[in-house]
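task queued by scheduler; priority normal; single chain, no ligands, no partner chains; default sampling; output format set to structure tokens
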Amino acid sequence: MTDPSPASLADRVRDGDVRFHEIEEHADADTAAAARRRLVAETADADADALGEYAFDAADAHGSNIENMIGAVQVPMGVAGPVAIDGGALSGERYLPLATTEGALVASINRGCSVVTDAGGATARVTKSGMTRAPVFRVRDVAEAEALVEWVRDSEDVLREAAESTTSHGELLDVTPYVVGNNVFLRFRYDTKDAMGMNMATIATREACDRIEDETDASLVALSGNLCSDKKPAAVNAVEGRGRSVTADVEVPREIVEDRLHTTPEAVAEINTRKNLVGSAKAGSLGFNAHVANAVAAMFLATGQDEAQVVEGANAITTAETTTDGDLYASVSIASLEVGTVGGGTTLPTQAAGLDILGVRGGGDPAGSNGDALAEAIAVCALAGELSLLAALGSRHLSSAHADLGR
């Protein structure tokens, strides 16, 4: 009988008897990961033992979450809050799970959460929803492009039937055409309920593209033509949104700003204008905020989201102004937050625990409500982080906080 030990499997890979990426066909997933870890460590002359410490079932992760698994990376998780949230899908006080290696981040967001709660809580709403996929077609000339655009506009029911035949949950909302010479881009937008929905949108769009090629003279060049736009900074997402567009705001009384944040509403508003708006414009930034990516990334890691989509999730605008009563109004609007509470990394146990902390794990009732609730929680988290950082700049405490906590 063949020895299924990691050492034996590693020897078989070296001898060419077993392929590196096919070890799971000869042993259970944990043993395969150990064999692969052994091979990598020996080749790189590295100590990889710590990667073998993980709490999930490798068999569940293999194929659905990872390939060529050698172990897992552990990221410290903390919580900020509780913070009071008045959302369209999430209400009450919630702890916000944050996974990060950046010292001072959780402490800063926690301070913002405390201020938000003392001010009566933050309001949050998802204002638009829809996951997109935008294939590009080749046509002969602009006349043929116009014909394709007209066909798409007249045949949305046909495309909807084709796309929705691939999914029991997703719904095609609309198809927007864009013409560039003999290229026609079609931006399909779907309601994917509680799933982030990228795979759902891709599969559904492929079916619709087959129908287009059957019925027109257009030829599909690529299922994604980058007008989606996925995992890249893009103005189309800033304007049209992708995933969920969500806004959170709060009005903080002057005395709380002065006593708790050690600055004034006027100072915070001026810093926001000169830094987040003017400074970002001068830099040509697609995001007009202080550090929304910090909150988005930490909550993405804590709840099993696709971390590469922090690129779009950080596409946010922060506003701050002094009210007629002399208080501070602040808001964060995130244009393209791509999140889900089912599928992908949300099924891993530690990430599922993060969703459980928020009370949004799994499918919502009604469908889509848990995804909305997660988006609202992330927006409130980002708002708390913006308030805290802007105030730290106003009180000139930023460097001292990092010296104490971030070194």
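post-processing summary
- The beta strands are 77-87, 91-99, 122-133, 136-138, 171-180, 183-191, 219-222, 243-252, 316-322, 328-337.
- The chain has a mean pLDDT of 94.
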